[in-house]
Amino acid sequence: METSDFTQSSSTPSSPDKPLPRISILTMFRLGLFQMGLGIMAILTLGILNRVMISELGINPAYATGVLAMHQLVAPARIWFGQLSDAKPLFGYHRSGYVWLGTAGFTIAAFLAVQVMWQLGAAVQTAGGWTLNTEILGWTGILGLIFTLYGLALSASSTPFTAMLVDVSDEDNRSKLIGTTWSMLMVGIIIGGITGGILLKSLDPAETASQVSAEVFSSPLATLQTPLNRLFIIVPLVVIGLTLLATLGIEKKYSRYASRSSLVEREDQVTLGRALKVLTASRQTGLFFTFLLVMTISLFMQEGVLEPYGADVFGMPISETTRLNSYWGLGTLIGVSTTGFLVVPRIGKQNTTKLGCLSVAISFCLIILAGFTQQGEILKLAMLLFGLAAGITTTGGLSLMLDLTAAETAGTFIGAWGLAQAMARGLATFIGGWVLSIGEALFTAPVLAYGLVFALQAVGMIAAIWFLGRVNVQEFRDNTKQAIATVMENDLDG
Q1: pLDDT tens digit string along 263-293?
Q2: Mean pLDDT, rounded, for 28-45
Q3: What is the mean pLDDT of the chain?
Q4: pLDDT tens by residue, 221-251
Q5: Which of 134, 188, 300, 355 has the lowest tally of Cβ within 10 angstroms?
């Protein structure tokens, strides 16, 4: 899902006897349908399920975000799936077969996760609240296992898909493909938020009160199960359809895989051990990696607590908290699409990244202040501004990274960063839940408990600016190429 996946691999000309057709803009958007499906699924898992577990079923935030984070913490599996798709075709294709099988796997896993969630919720309800008894721990472990399988299936589909994007494109049109597919990912997040809000409208208090008796309404499980089960059947089927529409016939018609003489470093070929060596190969690579790590964790800690925040502090129904994702998704889309044209040319890549980090920190302060007002409209505005700031930060950081590293080592460095970023996002989700649990133990007011998470993110963004300020562009350019080359040589010698 990271844009870094798409930026590597050199291409050699296709055979002059039978030149392959070039992908058109329409085909790029068609490929982006798969990314759009991933965006929709992200809302279902990190958004809706997390809110239901924490706010409706009373599951401890640390454990709820912990099981969700499992699907991101298995990111190193992408290495194996990427190499497997290189070496062993599936259903006659190097990439498409893995994409289809993986998509079927993570959509089925999402539905199974919901069914286990009901069992966990029932166990918590029977115990009279969250407690670490055998039944609750057992169902929590099973839910964590299912999300691990979800992450493995996601790796099995997304990494071969990004490799296919490299296969079907050339150097001169790959940047367009990157921009198109990444934008479609954000469109998927927006659509997922809107669609989820519509399909879960029946769970709004006014709607529910007119449909069920007071006795039934007092049971969250009885109220939630039917609409959520329906949502997790309809949406995964739509995602499977989008995947097939995006990929059928593409690899056979456009792939240059067979005509390229050698493979270069892609994310799926960079092991976790090599990634850490590359990212700490010199003082400057270490500083820049630390900046990226702090920035990524600080940016994504809110993923696991945003919707419960809307529920517990603002009293929003599920349909409304689901739409919060649309606001920050729209802001991010605007930020990414405009920063490269309006901001970077005027103040430069490094200053753009600093501006983005500062804007994110201010946005988190606004999100906290919105909690004290308990006005949902102010929260929505704050989320839109957060998305805009996140878009500026992401664009500035990626542009700076591409600008700093030498062309000969860009593939290795970006691949290492992509793998580390995926791990950092999983860690961010996990940390967000644990900080919320600490906040709930320290404060009786929910706004203060959630505010602790957002405040820590704001502090993290300021720390990221400090690390970025210590990055010396010229020293980075002088040292990075040689440092990474030394790492690669040592790996070969070993």
Answers
A1: 444 555 556 566 667 666 677 777 888 888 8
A2: 91
A3: 81
A4: 777 888 889 989 999 999 999 999 999 998 8
A5: 134
Nearest-10 crossing angle of helices 376-404, 410-442 = 150
Both tokens of 81, joined, read 């799936």
Distance between CA atoms of residues 257 and 263, nearest Å: 9
C-alpha distance across the termini of the chain, in Å = 32
Q: Which amino acid is residue 17, in one-letter code?
A: D
What is the sign of the dihedral through the CA atoms of 295, 2, 40 and 136?
Answer: negative
> 463: which 2 tokens?
């720390």
Residues 61, 302 contacting (CB under 8 angstroms): no
How far is 94 from 224, CA to CA, in rounded Å? Answer: 41
Enumerate residues 6+ apart whose C-beta is below 8 A from 92: none
Question: Smallest Cα–Cα separation from 277: which of 269, 285, 268?
Answer: 285
Residues with Cβ < 8 Å from 445, sequence gap 6 or more?
Answer: none
pLDDT in tens, 123-155: 999 998 899 899 999 999 999 999 999 999 998
Instruction: Give residue 408's pLDDT band: very low, low, confident or very high (50, 70, 90).
Output: very low
Q: Which tokens in the block code for residue 482?
A: 């040689």
What secondary structure letter does DSSP report for 19?
Answer: P
Give Cα 265 to chain centroid, integer Å.
22
d(CA 324, CA 232): 19
- Both tokens of 4, joined, read 């870094």
* Residues whose CB falls within 8 Å of the CB of residue 19, separated by 6 or more in sequence, listed in order: none
Buried b (16+ CB within 10 A) or exposed e, 40-63: bbbbbbbbbbbbbbbbbbbbbbbb
Closest CA to 242 of 133, 89, 417, 107: 107
Quote the pTM value.
0.78
How many angstroms separate the Cα of 36 from the Cα of each of 31, 210, 383, 387, 491?
9, 35, 21, 17, 38
Task: Mention every residue, 6+ apart, whose C-beta is less than 8 A from residue 174.
Answer: 6, 7, 165, 166
| Under 8 Å between Cβ of 254 and 19 | no
User: Which of 285-299 are b and which e, b meaning 16 or more Cβ less than 10 Å from the residue's Cβ?
Assistant: bebbbbbbbbbbbbb
Buried b / exposed e along 64-75 (16+ C-beta atoms within 10 A): bbbbbbbbbbbb
Helix (H, G, I), strand (E, B) or coil at 90: strand
**Residue 123 — φ and ψ, nearest 5°?**
-65, -40
Torsion of CA 9, 483, 464, 73, to 10 degrees: 60
The whole-angstrom distance between residue 33's C-alpha and the CA centroid of its chain comes to: 16
- Which residue matches tokens 């270069």? 264
Torsion of CA 201, 193, 148, 126, to 10 degrees: -30
Residues paired with residue 90 on neighbouring β-strands, in sequence order:
93
DSSP bridge partners of 281: none
